[in-house]
Amino acid sequence: MHSNHLLLEEPIRMASILEPSKSSFFPAMTKIVGTLGPKSRSVEVISGCLKAGMSVARFDFSWGNPEYHQGTLENLKAAVKTTKKLCAVMLDTVGPELQVVNKSGNSISLLADGFVILTPDQEQEASSKVLPINFDGLSKAVKHGDTIFVGQYLFTGSETTSVWLEVSEVKGNDVVCVIKNSATLAGSLFTLHASQIRIELPTLSDKDKEVISTWGVQNKIDFLSLSYTRHAEDVRNAREYLSKLGDLYQTQIFAKIENIEGLTHFDEILQEADGIILSRGNLGIDLPPEKVFLFQKAALYKCNMAGKPAVVTRVVDSMTDNLRPTRAEATDVANAVLDGSDAILLGAETLRGLYPIETISTVGKICAEAEKVFNQDLYFKKTVKYVGEPMTHLESIASSAVRAAIKVKSSVIICFTSSGRAARLIAKYRPTMPVLSVVIPRLKTNQLKWSFSGAFEARQSLIVRGLFPMLADPRHPAESTSATNESILKVALDHGKASGVIKSHDRVVICQKVGDASVVKIIELED
């Protein structure tokens, strides 16, 4: 694993770039979130996605009804059973998303320099003259000269399937716009995005709450992706709502930053959220193109230092219809990894794309190559400096474990954890080797029945770079005599051997609690 660790800061032999990559059990340390939909909901395709490297399945409630998504989820469960690969579930809310309602589903052609009216009257038929929308406050929110984008799912800007409009005048509740580019809108639903304009709608809509309290509770969702997060208050409200819904108090909230408002309150949102999704599709409309990279780098750095997972979206749009990404996209995926992202989120590429499995596989390969040249040494120093002194007890143990693992060229770090926090802290220092997080279930009771915790914690580490969970036997507590830990350690080592990350004579760093003390130890394996 280490022999092929190059650094971009050092001269690389050009010929070595062409050497084929060695395949490994973990396709990449960077995780891949796949959105399941029409082209990726059969057991067969989902199994292929899991084998190709998807570890989180996203269910986007902007379209489709709960029954449809339930069918997809049942197929996911079947695929997890047959492939024996864990997969977490993410529910993506609709939030204050503005939509054009096209009941007939006929395609609509708009010609440059013509006029089109946006109206809240949803009884009207969508046509090249009138577009009915699901929001009646647009006329109050916009003024002459404002920009509005309309397109399917999201817009790349290069598509002929999205259009940008400029507000010409406001007539009562209607907004009259000049069409700036010719385009054909196809499908029954298009998103509408008013650039840099505050839309007075709740972040968690009533429809979202209904879906979360029924579908979400029934399926014990691991992650809630909170669309259009604009303030820390949005995250607090969502958390308060989840805390009343049985098991969902354990669900992690990922704030989706999609507009200027979310960007300006980024720091306080990051403090409240469990992770961040950089929704570059919508952000790319709100931000001037030359600022997009800057936001990405700054946001990922902040997430890394806070030790919270960061997810980047919209990386290989062209793979929706093509087998290969463009050169810019391939470079973009690698840069997201080098910038420090934990996971890459695929939307349309797997949802309605023609090549869901190939897309996941391609993105995984690019991530793996980028990880080889990730400057861990520099990153480690930066993180330690940022954390400062005195470090907390856990933080110092985690950073020591990573430093030890790198010094002794350990093939894997094994961490025993019950809440998952220790393992996430180790992953925060981005070790060059995989971290096997052995989640030890804890027995809990509500006076009526016994239940084990641990499954949530294990699945939630599936979105953190370099963290690979396994659930231990509940008969072994996490902080205990060394004897019980020896037996779990054996299970963890066997798992590592079976998956090919550990070989005989390898060194392994182990992080565990013994009594009240946290211990980092290094063991060398015999034959």
UniProtKB/TrEMBL annotation:
<dbReference type="InterPro" id="IPR011037">
    <property type="entry name" value="Pyrv_Knase-like_insert_dom_sf"/>
</dbReference>
<keyword id="KW-0808">Transferase</keyword>
<keyword id="KW-0324">Glycolysis</keyword>
<protein>
    <recommendedName>
        <fullName>Pyruvate kinase</fullName>
        <ecNumber>2.7.1.40</ecNumber>
    </recommendedName>
</protein>
<dbReference type="InterPro" id="IPR001697">
    <property type="entry name" value="Pyr_Knase"/>
</dbReference>
<comment type="similarity">
    <text>Belongs to the pyruvate kinase family.</text>
</comment>
<feature type="domain" description="Pyruvate kinase C-terminal">
    <location>
        <begin position="395"/>
        <end position="515"/>
    </location>
</feature>
<dbReference type="GO" id="GO:0005524">
    <property type="term" value="F:ATP binding"/>
</dbReference>
<dbReference type="GO" id="GO:0004743">
    <property type="term" value="F:pyruvate kinase activity"/>
</dbReference>
<keyword id="KW-0479">Metal-binding</keyword>
<dbReference type="InterPro" id="IPR015813">
    <property type="entry name" value="Pyrv/PenolPyrv_kinase-like_dom"/>
</dbReference>
<keyword id="KW-0547">Nucleotide-binding</keyword>
<comment type="pathway">
    <text>Carbohydrate degradation; glycolysis; pyruvate from D-glyceraldehyde 3-phosphate: step 5/5.</text>
</comment>
<dbReference type="InterPro" id="IPR036918">
    <property type="entry name" value="Pyrv_Knase_C_sf"/>
</dbReference>
<dbReference type="InterPro" id="IPR040442">
    <property type="entry name" value="Pyrv_kinase-like_dom_sf"/>
</dbReference>
<keyword id="KW-0067">ATP-binding</keyword>
<feature type="domain" description="Pyruvate kinase barrel">
    <location>
        <begin position="30"/>
        <end position="360"/>
    </location>
</feature>
<keyword id="KW-0670">Pyruvate</keyword>
<dbReference type="InterPro" id="IPR015795">
    <property type="entry name" value="Pyrv_Knase_C"/>
</dbReference>
<keyword id="KW-0460">Magnesium</keyword>
<dbReference type="GO" id="GO:0016301">
    <property type="term" value="F:kinase activity"/>
</dbReference>
<dbReference type="InterPro" id="IPR015806">
    <property type="entry name" value="Pyrv_Knase_insert_dom_sf"/>
</dbReference>
<keyword id="KW-0418">Kinase</keyword>
<dbReference type="GO" id="GO:0000287">
    <property type="term" value="F:magnesium ion binding"/>
</dbReference>
<dbReference type="GO" id="GO:0030955">
    <property type="term" value="F:potassium ion binding"/>
</dbReference>
<dbReference type="InterPro" id="IPR015793">
    <property type="entry name" value="Pyrv_Knase_brl"/>
</dbReference>
<dbReference type="Pfam" id="PF00224">
    <property type="entry name" value="PK"/>
</dbReference>
<dbReference type="Pfam" id="PF02887">
    <property type="entry name" value="PK_C"/>
</dbReference>
